Amino acid sequence: METLLPLAAEVADLLKKRGETLALSESSMGGLVSAALVAQPGASAFYLGSTVIYTRGAAKALYALQGPPAPDVKPLTEPYVAAMAEVVREKFRATWAISEMGASGPSGSPYGPGPGTAVIGLAGPSPASLTVSTGSADRVANMRAFGAAALQLLLKSLKD
After folding, report:
1. Measured between alpha carbons, how far is 160 from 68 in angstroms, rounded to an integer?
2. In whole angstroms, what is the distance from residue 35 CA to residue 32 CA?
3. What distance separates the 2 farthest-apart alpha carbons in the chain?
4. SS3 assignment for the chain
5. Is the pTM of the predicted complex or chain greater than 0.85?
6. What pLDDT shows up at residue 114?
7. Among 77, 62, 61, 68, which residue's Cα sits nearest to residue 24?
8. Which of 5, 13, 8, 3 shows the shortest CA–CA distance to 24?
9. Percent of the chain whose predicted confidence (pLDDT) is above 90
10. Do 99 and 88 meet the contact criterion of CB atoms below 8 Å apart?
11. Four-point Cα dihedral 133, 94, 50, 118, nearest 10
12. Is 131 within 8 Å of 78 (Cβ atoms)?
């Protein structure tokens, strides 16, 4: 989490200045981004909450998912995770929401991608998505890399 704190501080500062809010749904990041954001002074001004969704069953239970956002949309793809981010944004009534799915390692995802792969979706005024591929099976390093990528994606949209 230590490496995420400077990025989280920048996100916190911008969200507080703009009077905007954020919610998250993390998977392979395991709550690291949420922890980095909650560690910021005044986090309650912008941070609404998060979930760590680690299984498809948990996603179905918490978000009442009936299936993919569209028949041709597969999990662990940018369209799928972007749709999940929008669900999170709506559920929390947040200005912004981040949703992430991935395979931190050492094995790959049951959806196909290998270890070191994550997909991040951002819902809000400037929606965006990103696929991260580290090429590594180092679980902890991948979790940190995915978290940094999620915060950087949000920062880019906040600055645009």
Report:
1. 30
2. 5
3. 43
4. CHHHHHHHHHHHHHHHHHCCCEEEEECCCCCHHHHHHHCCCCHHHCEEEEEECCCHHHHHHHHCCCCCCCCCCCCCCHHHHHHHHHHHHHHHCCCEEEEEEEECCCCCCCCCCCCCEEEEEEECCCCEEEEEECCCCCHHHHHHHHHHHHHHHHHHHHHC
5. yes
6. 82
7. 62
8. 8
9. 75
10. yes
11. -10
12. yes
Q: What is the pLDDT of residue 74?
A: 78
* 56: phi then psi, degrees, rounded to nearest 5: -60, -35
Amino acid letter, 103? A
Under the banding of pLDDT at 50, 70 and 90, the label for residue 71 is low
Question: Tokens standing for 93?
Answer: 């009534």
Q: At what angle do helices 5-18 and 139-159 cross, to 10 degrees?
A: 30
Side chain identity at residue 80, one-letter code: Y
Residues 93-126 pLDDT 10s: 999 999 999 999 998 787 777 899 999 999 999 9
